[in-house]
Amino acid sequence: MRKQFRVFRVRAQTKQLSDVIPLPASVRPDPAVTFTITAGTAVSAVGEAAGVAAHLNLPISADGSVRLLLDETLAAEAYRLAITADSVTLSGGSPQGLFWGVQTVLQLGEVLPGGVIEDAPRYAYRGAMLDLARHFFTAAEVKAHIDLLVQFKINHLHLHLTDDQGWRLEIPGWPRLTEVSGGAGTGVDGTGPGFLTLAEYADVVAYAAERFVTIVPEIDMPGHVNAVHVAYPELTADGQAVAPRTDAEVGYSSLVAGMEETYAFVEDVIKTVADLTPGPYLHIGGDECLSTPPEDYRTFLARVLPLPGKYGKRAVGWHEIAAADLPETAVVQFWRIEGDEPNVTRAAAAGRQVIMAPADRTYLDMKYDADTRLGLDWAGHLSVERAYDWDPADRLPGVGEEALLGVEAPLWSETLRSVADVQYLTLPRLPAIAEVAWSPRGSRDWESFRARLAAFGPRWDAAGIAYHRSAEIDWP
Ligand code: TNX
């Protein structure tokens, strides 16, 4: 972190208090003063605040001029940052709010502009998704990705752990899921095998929790299950072995709704994943079940949607699940590119919460433009401006602000082969979607955003991050 401050030294003098992404809810600059962090600057923080202070990487001292404290009059994720010539006071409604305030301080750099920021998120759920099934990323790589996400106050990481090509989480009692379907040759094009052991998953969950990020595990069903059938042919309709698939087709595999063995398997997996996951959500997929007859789809969901609740979790599913009766606590994740989705509108009217992830605005695996060397284009091209210039509360009729749990930016990995590929598609669009999810609607402005975004170029260059130098941004 000291290094991060140093990277900013050259440009630090020109920073303004509002040079932060996502834009804070309220900024009152005091241009007459700055506070400079030097080798002698210490932080004072006690109790839970001290744990958060560690993320500033400054020495801790009882009389430090940077003070971190908890203020229970603030909302849990809210913080207040007051910068004067001789002190910095950061108050948070909870350690999580303090942590977001720390991210703001880290973005402002070594010479902090004077004034007061009062900040709180628009949405409780600000998510990113990483697909570990089409191409596996190790626990260390996922942790590094979390470091990137939290800089933009993303607080949920949805892990797409299973799909036709591979199964990426160890499940006791079902060893072939990972031995076979997490082994060599799995992943799109047969590259990117691997899986998280129980200990590795727990390590990722703990690392995320220390950064106030909730892991949302997804076990995709009843479609997207070829890897299950490769490992356990007894779960197919005819008990016959199926061939592994490393192409990028979707919609051809399905668990069998009319077989009790299906539900024994599913309940075992859901119980295991629920036990491993401290967060409140368990994503059961439900998307693109093109080879599951609609009647079977509803039968399957009637049995499976209550299971996360049975094990203490809220079921999340892609918006197709809104065709079924949803438990009260279920969450619908909308991903469609155009048109209405009457089932989602109906679910929202009945009080179900919705996560907005329309593919044409939030899918980080879409190409930026026709020249982008990675990614897909079925939802069109997703420029930085398109990722920024939309509003979640306007997207679906009857699904307004009060129905929204939040916003998510999914990254599917069919075309990804490395961490650099992840960075290339994530930056700089993730910061745009993070601002959509955090900042007050009325404060958002593309020209302001692109100017603030430009300042990240040198930081990313210095850190060796493979971001896309989009021509939409005037990088310095
Ligand atoms: C659709 S959108 C999918 C995924 C693909 C993705 C590629 C959704 C819920 N499912 O299976 O990976 O498109 O963009």
Draw up the topology in text.
Elements: H1 2-7, H2 9-12, E1 26-36, E2 43-44, H3 48-53, E3 66-70, E4 79-83, E5 88-92, H4 95-108, E6 111-119, E7 125-131, H5 139-150, E8 156-160, H6 176-179, H7 198-210, E9 214-221, H8 226-231, H9 260-276, E10 281-285, H10 294-304, H11 306-310, E11 314-318, E12 331-334, H12 342-349, E13 353-356, H13 359-362, H14 384-388, E14 404-411, H15 419-426, H16 429-438, H17 446-454, H18 456-463
What does this structure look like?
By secondary structure, this protein is an alpha/beta fold. The chain folds into two domains: 2-119, 2-Layer Sandwich (Chitobiase, domain 2), CATH 3.30.379; 125-463, Alpha-Beta Barrel (TIM Barrel). Helices cover 32% and strands 17% of the residues. It is built from 18 helices and 14 strands. The chain has helices spanning 2-7, 9-12, 48-53, 95-108, 139-150, 176-179, 198-210, 226-231, 260-276, 294-304, 306-310, 342-349, 359-362, 384-388, 419-426, 429-438, 446-454, 456-463; strands at 26-36, 43-44, 66-70, 79-83, 88-92, 111-119, 125-131, 156-160, 214-221, 281-285, 314-318, 331-334, 353-356, 404-411. The strands form two sheets. The chain has an eight-stranded parallel beta barrel, surrounded by six helices. A six-stranded mixed beta sheet has the order 1-6-4-5-3-2. Helix 5 (139-150) runs parallel beside helix 7. The longest helix is centred in the middle third of the chain and has 17 residues, at 260-276. The protein binds ligand TNX. Residues 250, 287-288, 318, 335, 359, 363, 365, 376, 412, 414 line the site of ligand TNX.
